[in-house]
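User: Could you check the structure of this?
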Amino acid sequence: MTTVERIASLNDIARTAMGVGGKLVQTSGISARPDQSNIREKVEKFNTFTPDNDPHGERDFGSFVQPDGEKIFWKIDYYAKDMESGSEDPSDPGQTVRVLTIMLADEY
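Assistant: Sure, the predicted structure tokens are below.
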């Protein structure tokens, strides 16, 4: 497995098993929505990765539009265990904390 494939696999775990493979953060805009559980479910099931939204193959970003027209973004960032800096090796879960952030597009 290549480094990129390993990162993508770890990101899939963080996204599909929220809270297990990393930390989940949702913005105040998402928290204020009555459909936030539906939004989290769409993030978990997201699999529409393309060269446009996933140019590096890490499956660390996605977006979709809710029925009311609101555009939603989600993003995975890689932090060192101390949460003070970026991870030196996102392919190593022993030194990386993944943070999945779900936000309204206009909060990005």
